[in-house]
Amino acid sequence: MKLGLRLNLYRAAQFSMPVDAIRHAERLGYHSVWTAEAYGSDALSPLAYLAAVTDRIKLGTAVVQLAARPPATLAMHAMTIDALAGGNRVILGIGVSGPQIVEGWYGQPWGRPNLRLRDYITIIRKVLDRTEPVAHTGPELQLPYTGPGALGQGKALKSIMHPVAPIPIWLATNAPRNTALAAELCNGWLPMGLGPSGVPETLRGRPDFEVFTAATVQITDDVKGALDAMRPLTAMYVGGMGSESHNFHRDNMARCGFPEAANRIGELWRAGRKAEAMAAVPEEFLEQSALLGSPERIRRRWQAGYAPPGVTGVIIDADQAEARELMADLAGTREEARG
Hints:
By secondary structure, the chain is α/β, with parallel strands linked by helices. It is about 40% helix and about 15% strand.
């Protein structure tokens, strides 16, 4: 089982890179380190920095937001960072975010996300492949651009820079149509959460296709206290990170087996009853994305099948060095690093 280390820089008011923790994970044989973005720090700049202070750990985005930059720009970022890192290290994890951020922060139309994702990923592939000048005519995106305001002088171009290695594209989604798109066009899938059925059969056992889930890992004598500490952020995402009609975190909680709780949290949060919304988050839902307690308790949960069939890696959020070491032992990465 591969391990990734999740960085939560994107939701911090002040930026601080945990270089020691990242280097520790690299020594333990972790496969990758992952950044994200919302409406603060971006996901790509930290990877350029990490390219200079690490040696081999892969540098992934989980996720970079589709509306933040045109597809050719994202391909340029990826090629540049991978060259800085020595090649074969960058993983592009892409997600659409939600309409509040797409329209409110980036000033882009929500449009038709599934069609835009197909256009976006296809253009990135063409840029990275460099087989011919990039031209694309899709329902959402076109290159060269010929729409309103165009001079009609756009020219299909080929990247001056040659990628130093193939750059995999992973898609973060849980909606069925977009998950099917991940299977069709991408090299990996980053599920927001896995429901009772686990990884879809169409994504299991495919050569070179990765499925990474996530876990908060904390060694503690107070499991309930650790779960309670997760409630504010979970309630904010399920209740407030979206609208009444569009909230993918609420939809994810429902798909994971808690539809009534998801709706109730949304109602309470919108009514301004945030403390009640936090209290309404089911402990069972929190435990689905957490490995908490003594090393023995964490070991039992891991060995009981925390990562269901089809999952090839787990991205962990672990501030404690001993937690990172425990996970390296459970996943067998420490032995691989020594070998």
